[in-house]
Amino acid sequence: MPMPLVAVYTASKTAIEGFSSSLALELKPFGIEVKLVQPGYGPTTSFTSNGAERMQGLITADYADYAQSVFAAFTQVQQFTKELDVAEAVFRAATDQSGQRRFPAGADAIALSLAERC
Amino acid sequence: MKTVLITGCSSGYGRETALYFLAKGWKVIATMRTPTTDGFPQSEHLKVLALDVTQADSIKAALKEAGPIDVLVNNAGIGLFGACEATPMTTVREVFETNTFGMIAMAQAVIPQFRAQQSGLIINLTSTLY
What we know:
- The complex is a heterodimer.
- By secondary structure, chain A is mainly alpha-helical.
- Chain A has helices spanning 7-27, 61-75, 83-95, 107-117; strands at residues 32-39, 102-105.
- Helix content of chain B is 40%, strand content 19%.
- In chain B, strands 3-2-1-4-5 form a five-stranded parallel beta sheet, sandwiched between helices.
- Chain B is globular and about 50 Å long.
- The termini of chain B are far apart.
- Chains A and B meet through helix 1, strand 1, helix 2, helix 3 and helix 4 of A and helix 1, strand 4, helix 3 and strand 5 of B.
């Protein structure tokens, strides 16, 4: 599910999806695997604080009201991704032998991945 | 005993993942731009190394110091909230340097070793938010 105000971030991550899909094929003959762990929304991580100085001024007056409503909506989120969800998903990815390539992490990401299969 | 190298272990998903693999009995190479063992248990199975995924020299030095690994976890990333039109291209490039090019550079750096050992696993952290 797309989120607003993270277009650049999303672009940087989507690129890795395509990169990984192609690389997985290219490295298979050499016995090397490439997998993805896909976390959902993670409000408890330092997603924003790590880039605080980078984000100064990126919500201009024209976007202030809209951004406010987006942030308000974030606080209503019931299902989100915690650090342990990701650690568990990475460990599953590292130990799984079934050939599965994508590992959603977090209740929201898992719900989304199930919905996409329906 | 298997060895995992994880990028971006100073906080968040990276640190939690490092602790999780340690608890499961793996050898863990926890990397971060400014190395610190704060928040990690004393363990002979843990090595904390400096690694900035945007710097070729740093990648080379860290992998040399790490020795053979079985799994690379490409976790290091930076977040960014902001209106697209207000985001300077220098900032756009900074985000890509870490989140995109950093992961590609790390993959490039481990592939020769993985090919030589005829096994290896690269795990890339992305997102479901699109």
